[in-house]
Amino acid sequence: LHYLRRREIDALLFRVESLRKYAGTHLKDSSSIRSKTFFKLLELTVRLDLNPGQCRLKSKYLLTRLQNAPLPGDAYAEIEIIPYEHLWDLTLKLLKEKSSRVF
Length: 103
Known about the structure:
By secondary structure, the chain is mostly helical. The protein has 6 helices and no strands. It starts with a helix and ends with a helix.
């Protein structure tokens, strides 16, 4: 979100790719569904060129999947200090804010 806010696209692309690789390597069990889904939402923003309208529209399926995923157990409780749904709302607000400004 830091790189998204600063519009550092190259750094953002690198981080999203790193998250994708991390998820493929380390997030294989059922308790990781929420994290993997949130990573896919972030990847979607890059694929859609940070377009807030397209991101909101095309993320509905993943957002529903995130909302329906079971919350992590006690061992993973500290992973989601801020629920991913709130982070996704923040992401969409950042995209909208950035798209409405004239550079």
